[in-house]
Amino acid sequence: MSTNQNLIKAFFIESKNMNLFDYFSSRAKKDGYISIENIFQEFSFHERSHAKNFLRLINKSDTLENFNYNHIPIASTLENLKMMIDEKEKIIDLYLKYSKIADEEKNQKACVKFKTIAKAHEYHIKVMEELVENIINQEFFSSSEKIFWKCLKCGYIYEGTNPPEICPACGHDKSYFVKIK
After folding, report:
1. Which of 28, 52, 156, 172 fits as disulfide partner to 37, beta carbons 3.0 to 4.6 Å?
2. Alpha-carbon Rg of the chain, whole angstroms?
3. What are the beta bridge partners of residue 179?
4. C-alpha distances in angstroms, 21 versus 10, 13, 62?
């Protein structure tokens, strides 16, 4: 497979994941994880940037590519996180292979893009693994010691082992609170 074909495939992968993260952000909100909604939205924005970077390098005369989309229906936030961790791991392996091909073809711009975007995906995996652990261990809205919690809607700060059920400042529920580290 040529670098141009790999760039096309990478563009489709990033575009698909941009949409998946956007859809998953809505589900995270529905499941009561506003901070995960925000993380998914941030990652969706990153994926858009990645897709745009690959698109800029594609030789437009060679743009046919088959594309599989098998992530429907949208599952729970926990299952979505696990699925995207698996997806990102596959993408990292793929992009490292693509970077080698680009290097062999002396296409250093594409080589660098594949490698650097793979690094961004490694960060996404790390963040999502921490979120999975917090949800599974029921530590997303609790702490073993007193900490500060911030309401994402209004900025109210609360100290305690759990956020308040309702923000006293703006009236939004606890799903809008995040731990302040």
Report:
1. 28
2. 19
3. 149
4. 16, 12, 28
C-alpha distances in Å from residue 91, one per residue of 34, 84, 125, 176: 26, 10, 11, 31
The H-assigned helical ranges of 58-107 are: 77-104
Exposure string of 5-39, with b = 16+ CB inside 10 Å and e = fewer, is: bbbbbbbbbbbbbbebbbbbbebbbebebbbbbbb
Q: How far apart are CA 169 and CA 166, in angstroms?
A: 9
Three-class DSSP category at 178? strand
Phi then psi for residue 112, to 5 deg, are -65, -45
pTM value?
Answer: 0.77
Phi and psi for 164 in degrees, rounded to 5?
-65, 150
pLDDT digits (tens, 9 = 90+) for 73-83: 678 999 999 99
φ, ψ dihedrals at 117, nearest 5°: -75, -30
